Amino acid sequence: MKYSLEEFAPVYFTVGLFVIWEAACRLFNIDTFILPAPTEIFAAMVKYWWPLLKNSFVTLWTTLAGFAIAVVFGIALGVVVGWSRTIYRGLYPVMIGFNSVPKVAVVPILIMWFGIGEIPAILTAFLISFFPIVVNVATGLATTEPELEDVLRALGASKLDIMRKVGIPRTGPYLFGALKVGITLAFVGAVVSETIGANAGVGHLMVQAGSNFQMPLVFAGLLALAIEGILMYAIFAAFERRMVAWAFRSSQSAGG
Amino acid sequence: MIVLDNVTLTYPGRTGPVTALAGTTLHVRRGEFAAVVGPSGCGKSTLMKLVTGLIRPTSGTVAVDGKPVTGPVKMAGMAFQNANLLPWRTVLANVMLPLEIVPPYRGRFSRDKAAFQDKAMALLNVVGLSAFADRFPWEMSGGMQQRASLCRALIHEPALLMLDEPFAALDAFTREELWCVLRDLWQKLGFTVILVTHDLREAGFLADTIHVMSARPGRIVETRTVDFPRPRDLDVCYTPDFTQLVHELRSKIAEVRQAA
């Protein structure tokens, strides 16, 4: 079996990035305290594997908890918003306003309410990933083809029928697209909250390492976050491909 | 079976009220194949929505089967220029969609699914799609999608079939092929048809009666009975009488476009 250059492109690019980074650090003699070389970061990852892993799990669980709440409420609100034009118009500006508030600004409030710990992280992950889910579900429902709606209404279909047979299946690609984006956002939310105030999590670990001037460990934390982010994105992307295969038809379509 | 009596429809447009139809009167008998032709934008599609009760007239009355239409008529089959099949369903599942909605079938759907599947397969067989039942719509050509769309419009044995330029987006050969498919289905099942089209040959070949609409505000300006013997063959389109009919319809439409 022959693999093409394209298939391995992600590997080449990632390795290339680290090689350039390493070379730059050595060539320009960059202080470890400014920018540690990848080898130092990997060494820190090996040395501190247990705290990294432990805190990664904390971040993972708070992210997933917040994201799960966002999915449930996001779909529910998305269906309500997509159902009626009046609700859509009424709620949209409120949601835009809600989404425009930087979530970093909300974290201190959440910490005041719930104390330092996992709950502010979960809530921040929820708040940040909630909006794209609502908007995408609502858009999927609101953009049902009017002719298709006519076909069904002429058969005597109720609004609920149209929703069940057309609206909701049609929302699939929008929803899975939103989940893919939402999971990475939720991750960002959880880490932001951990950096501001928490006793565990990768964000917390990085703040602590930073205050001890352990720059390689700070970067090891960043790398751990990147890896977790890529993994979660990949899981949802694969899920999307399975669930709404029909939406990815352009490349295999017979056309005509 | 279908009676439109002096129907006017006005709706609010962006630059003031628009009158789509003004004093339209139309009669269609049970089992008749009626075609409505006219210049573009003459309110042909509005007429379809009125008959199926998707919109209500501003004045005048619409009656189907002697009963005034006050809401969606339920039981009408519709097909449009776009096949509008659901991409996540196979062709067979798409055709069966009305059976999941229309009352007598709806309640029995899960119980009689196998029987309904046979029914759908039989219909797909008539239009020559039985080998493609398990395909997805996007794997098929436009003509095949349109055949499936016709099956979906007919699976629940509607008394009325409404067609809004169903063959307009197809190439000439596929279009003629589908004329024959529609002709055969109609002869076999005996439903009433209202076909909205701007293709005069299509109207002449398929219809019993052709109604010519004027430019907006639309109304019926002429009704022609087409009495070529049935069953009709595509060859009828090349007879002098047919050419004469198309020619006359053509001049009539040119005339109403001038007047607009």
Fold topology:
The complex is a heterodimer of chains A (256) and B (260).
Chain A: H1 9-27, H2 38-47, H3 49-83, H4 85-100, H5 103-114, H6 118-142, H7 146-153, H8 159-196, H9 202-211, H10 215-243
Chain B: E1 2-13, E2 16-28, E3 33-37, H1 44-51, E4 59-64, E5 67-68, E6 76-79, H2 91-96, H3 103-106, H4 113-126, H5 142-154, E7 160-164, H6 172-189, E8 192-197, H7 200-206, E9 209-213, E10 220-225, H8 240-259
Parallel strand pairs in B: 3-8, 3-9, 6-7, 7-8
Antiparallel strand pairs in B: 1-2, 1-4, 4-5, 9-10
Helix pairs in contact in B: 7-8
Question: Can you walk me through this structure?
Answer:
The complex is a heterodimer of chains A (256) and B (260). With 256 residues, chain A is mostly helical. Chain A contains ten helices and no strands. Chain A has helices spanning 9-27, 38-47, 49-83, 85-100, 103-114, 118-142, 146-153, 159-196, 202-211, 215-243. The radius of gyration of chain A is 23 Å and the shape is globular. By secondary structure, chain B is α/β, with parallel strands linked by helices. Chain B is built from eight helices and ten strands. In chain B, strand 9 and strand 10 form a beta hairpin.
Helix content of chain A: over 70%
How many strands, which pairing sense, and closed or not: the largest β-sheet of chain A?
none
What letter string, H or E per element, gives the SSE order of chain B? EEEHEEEHHHHEHEHEEH
What low-confidence regions of chain A span 5 or more consecutive residues with pLDDT below 50? 251-256
How far is the N terminus from the C terminus of chain B?
31 Å
Largest interface: A-B, 25 and 35 residues
Rg of chain A, Cα atoms, Å = 23 Å
In terms of DSSP E residues, the strand content of chain B is 15-25%
What's the helix-strand series of chain A? HHHHHHHHHH
Number of strands of chain A: 0
Total number of beta strands of chain B: 10
Oligomer kind: heterodimer
Largest sheet of chain B: 6 strands, mixed
Shape of chain A: globular
Query: If helices are DSSP runs of H or I spanning 4 or more residues, what is the number of helices of chain A?
Result: 10
Number of helices of chain B: 8
Spatial extent as radius of gyration of chain B: 19 Å
